[in-house]
Specification:
The chain is mainly alpha-helical and about 325 residues long. The chain has helices at about 20-35, 55-75, 90-100, 105-110, 115-120, 130, 135-145, 155-175, 215-220, 245-250, 255-265, 270-300, 300-330, and strands spanning about 5-10, 40-45, 85, 150, 180-185.
Length: about 325
């Protein structure tokens, strides 16, 4: 694998199954990136501790990790081309995190509105130390493989800015070890939920999962929210902002069919059922190759584990190399054991 290709670090917290929103929001982009860049995809299990600290929640993580890797493989993320690894399997993460904690101030982190929002969302009355340090841990994730690019959504841009500051500070203070990671902002629109809410989200119970079977997809689409003002098929309907058409635009490969449906919908010449039936077919066509890949991996769960293990070994190698450079640059004392 060429060292000259720029490195990318991105990933997910293993908190459950991935859905169509994740597909348009990040997975689709990664499929493109994996051909051009050296990609590291992190399964960020340590990050789940910030918001899911109960023992029952922690014991669920293992199963979510497996599901997440299956989701990655099912969409076509290719373990031959990229490195899929488990964050906690790279202990250097903790080590670099501690070093980075010295290079950023508490007030700087406290100014991040996103962390306050997260604390509020979890009903925490005071900010846990670990949550405040979330962007620092994320910096360790990014800089251990010395990533050049970090694909994130707009909401995460401020966190990568922290990573850039830490990298600059380290390099200035100790010598050039890290690239200054750049944000790779995708123009990712947030996919609406089946209920018409602004965001498809597993916690809102309005998601179509990548792992859903055809029957489940059918049931979910049939219950979908459309144009509330349209009481019958002969009333002209609104296409813009209508979830059913947003999904058609995103997932129906037959654009002529979509244009025809929109045209007839605007004129009051098509019923919701036909629009939905065609959406069911389109979604199932879209999901068919994913299901096929998933099924083949499901028959060989050891192979899924081995892919993650192999990726983690590779991430460990890179992390060890980085930590050597870090300790060397810092002039840290080494105990010979
Ligand atoms: P959920 O919201 O389903 O509980 P999650 O909490 O694991 O999933 P988030 O933290 O909300 O996921 O989002 C993680 C990333 O996934 C986001 O930065 C975004 O890129 C993508 N994503 C999640 N939901 C959507 C969506 N509905 N539309 C587009 N992108 C999404
Ligand atoms: Mg969420």
């Amino acid at each position: 694998m060429s060292e000259k290709r720029k490195r990318i670090l991105t990933g997910d917290r293993p908190t459950g199954k991935m859905h169509l929103g994740h597909y348009v929001g990040s997975l689709e982009n990664r499929l493109r990136l994996q051909d051009t860049y050296e990609c590291f995809f992190i399964v960020a299990d340590l990050h789940t501790l910030t918001t899911r600290p109960e023992r029952e929640q922690i014991t669920e993580v293992g199963q979510f990790v497996h599901q997440l890797v299956l989701d990655y493989l099912s969409v076509g993320i290719d373990p031959e081309k990229c490195t899929i690894f488990l964050q906690s399997g790279v202990p250097e993460t903790y080590e670099l995190n501690l070093i980075f904690e010295m290079l950023i101030t508490v007030p700087r982190l406290e100014r991040l509105p996103s962390l306050k929002d997260m604390a509020k969302a979890e009903n925490l009355d005071a900010m846990p130390f670990g949550l405040l340090g979330y962007p620092v841990l994320q910096t360790a994730d990014i800089l251990l493989p010395r990533a050049n690019l970090v694909p994130v959504g707009k909401d995460n841009e401020a966190h990568v800015e922290i990573s850039r500051e830490i990298a600059r500070r380290f390099n200035r203070q100790y010598g050039e070890v890290f690239p200054i990671p750049e944000v790779l902002l995708g123009e990712v629109p947030t996919l609406v939920g089946t209920d018409g809410q602004a965001k498809m989200s597993k916690s809102l119970d309005n998601a179509i999962f990548l792992a859903d079977d055809p029957k489940t997809v059918e049931q979910k689409v049939m219950k979908m929210y459309t144009d509330p003002k349209r009481v019958s098929a002969d009333v002209p309907g609104t296409v813009e902002g209508n979830p059913v058409f947003i999904y058609h635009d995103a997932f129906n490969a037959n654009t002529a069919e979509v244009e025809d449906l929109k045209d007839r919908y605007r004129k009051g010449k098509v019923g919701d059922v036909e629009v939905k039936q065609k959406l069911i077919n389109a979604l199932n066509d879209f999901l068919a190759p994913l299901r096929k890949r998933r099924a083949s991996y499901e028959q060989r769960p050891e192979q899924v584990d081995e892919i993650l293990a192999e990726g983690t070994r590779r991430a460990q190698e890179v992390a060890k190399e980085t930590m050597e450079r870090v300790r060397e640059a810092m002039g840290m004392f080494r105990l010979k054991l």
